[in-house]
Every structure is written in structure tokens, then in C-alpha cells.
Amino acid sequence: MTGESFTDIVRVDHGRAVKDSSFARSYSKNPGFCVYAESFTEDVLGYSPKLTLIEKRDYQFAHEAGVYVRPTNSIYFTANFQTCDPVHLYAIDAATHKVTQLDFPEVVQANGACNYKDGVLYCSQGDRTTPSGLVHVDPVTEKSETLINNFYGREFNSVNDVVVHHETGEIWFTDPNYGYHQGFRPASMLPPQVYRFNPKSKECWMVADGFVECNGLCFSPDYKRLYVTDTGAVQAHAGPGDGHQFSMNPKLPGTIYVYDVVNGRELHNRRVFAFCAIGIPDGIKCDEKGYVYSGCGDGVHCWAPDGTLVGKIVTGGFTANFCFAKEGMWLFAERDLFFCQLKAKGCLVKIECE
Fold first, then answer.
1. 24, 35, 164, 206: which one has the fewest Cβ atoms less than 10 Å from its Cβ?
2. How high is the pLDDT of residue 69?
3. Using 50, 70 and 90 to split pLDDT, how confident is the model at 144?
4. Residue 71's domain spans which residues?
5. 3-state SS track over 128-197
6. Secondary structure letter of residue 287 according to DSSP
7. Is the per-residue pLDDT at 237 higher than 70?
């Protein structure tokens, strides 16, 4: 029910969970908080966390992005193509919690986004006639500008998520094949890859490959690491079809990889950071202390910087993405929009929100 709050904290019985898979899965059913290590309480939740259901709808209106913009004091997010074609764009007023639908014509089948120059930099996945790329929108003037929509003549597949390296000013983004899988983009011209774009020189580099489907990405607070999620376990059966026949293949990745960032430009020493046991790790972000969070099959999971799972904010269902704002965390759980009060602060809050 809208307005309902959840404060239950469950502490995992590791001794029983490692021997009883049904018991281990039971931690993912009810909204609240699941503590795997006390550092999750001390550093992330604090001692009075609260998860509140802000809005509930009968379609997947709260799916991706999650971008706080200071001039409008609003959080911008996108719907899920699976029940919303074309993808709707929304903003929620941080003060009143009123949700408003938006219309930015240059943003086509949007997915992820980030804050860029106090506006919203959308991943516009495109369609069969509109190329995929990055579109910057000033939500005050409602003016849009396409920053990039091809890699030296080859169209991107369906640009999915994007971040800014605030020390260099360059823009990094992922480009999986989900537009093709969902039937609204033509067959891919590029492998699933990670790119780095310089908005001043207009140059673009491919910086990482070897994914089944690269998806979310984020930098560590010191910009010395880049985390990238591979959601290859989510596949369409028998080709793109009508775009609504996704399923999980547990033999494929639901994995977070981490790279060393060298000179702010190059990625070295790829290794596994964590594997998501429930669903897939989609959107990903860090807090000020370097804890890593990702939207997964039952809520938002949190790992210590060494890759140890320390806790979950449980929504009880797939939560593709989330974002930190000044007051806490917004969680986009498809048909449910949640807000969580907690101790941790996102590593970009001081840059983007204050």
C-alpha cells in the first residue's frame, strides 16, 4: 500500500543458510533489510533505516536511470519497455513526491541516465529509424542535444547506462544488445562494449569488451576503479521475436567485474568483483566509503570494497536501478517506487546534489 513503511531488519544465520538453500532464499521475500555483516548496519543502514513505498502502479513505470537534478529538485527515471512502449520518462519532485510524466522527443526508448551539467544525460536506445546514442536534456528549458550516436560510422546497438569521470570530464557508457533482443532495434553492428567519449574533442574510444551483455557501470570514489555489470543471464528466447519473451539462463553471467583505471583513460586488470545470487546485477553505484551497490532480483545488494556481500535493501522484487539523493536512496522496483532512509551517502552526492 502506498505510504507503507518497512523497518524490519533480519540478520542472516550463515551457519544454517550455507546448508539450506530454501532458507537462504527466504531472506529475499519481504521488504526490509537483510544484514550479512555488521558493517552493513554500522556503515550503510545506521540504526534507524526505513524503506517507504512511495507509489505503486499496475505497469513497470519505475525501471531505470535515477538522476537527481538540483535546479528542479527532482529525480528523473525511465519506465520499462516490457509494459510501456514507447518508454515513458518521469520525474518525481523530491519535496512533494509528486510523479510527473515528461516528453522529450529526442529521447527515444530511454534506459539509463546520469547527471551532466545539472541536466539529464539519457541513454537513448533508439528504434528502427532513430540511432542509439547519448542525449542531454536541460529539464528547465526542455532543450535537448544529441552528443554522440555512432562509433566512427557504425551505429551503437542500444546504449544502456552512462557515467561521468568528473576529474577528466569524459563520459563513459555501455552498449549491450537489448534493443535488438526487445525487437525495437535492428541487428547489432558492434559487440557489447564499454566506451569512453570526450565531449570537447568529440573523440570516442572502445575501452572494454568480452561481455555477454555489459550493462551498469560506476567509478569508485577515487576514480581508481571502474565496476561494470554483465547481465548476460537475461536473454530472449529464439531471437528477438516480439521483444517480450525474456528469461534467465543461469549458465550465463550475472556478474560484476572491476578494472583498474590508469591515467583516467585506460582499463587494466579485469577481474571478478562479485556474482549476484538473486537475478542479475543491473544498475551499480558506490557510496563515499567505497561500498558497492547494485540493483538485483530482490532489491539492492551491497558489497564491501573487497567483494564481500554485507547486506540487502529488500523490495521483494526485481529492482533494476536506484539512486542516491541528499536525503537517502530512491529504488526503482518496476511497479513499485521506494524511498529509503539510511546512513550511507552516495559518492557523487556532494558533486551532484549539494
1. 206
2. 96
3. very high
4. 4-353
5. CCCCCEEEEEECCCCEEEEEECEECCEECCCCCEEEEECCCCEEEEEECCHHHHCCCCCCCCCCCEEEEE
6. B
7. no
DSSP-derived letter for residue 72 is G
Contact assessment for residue 322 and residue 31, using Cβ atoms and an 8 Å cutoff? no
Instruction: Write the CA distances from 88 to 4, 101, 106, 156, 336, integer angstroms.
Output: 25, 7, 13, 21, 15
Q: Looking up cell 546497438, which residue turns up?
A: 157
The three cell numbers of residue 342 are 539510511
Q: Are 175 and 195 in contact (CB under 8 A)?
A: yes
Please tell me the total count of domains within the chain.
1
Nearest to 227 by CA among 290, 148, 136: 290
User: In this structure, are residues 231 and 280 in contact, taking their beta carbons and an 8 Å threshold?
Assistant: yes
The CATH number given to whatever domain includes residue 138 is: 2.120.10.30
Q: Which of 319, 323, 321 is nearest to 335 (CA)?
A: 319
Residues 141 and 147: their CA atoms lie apart, in Å, by 17
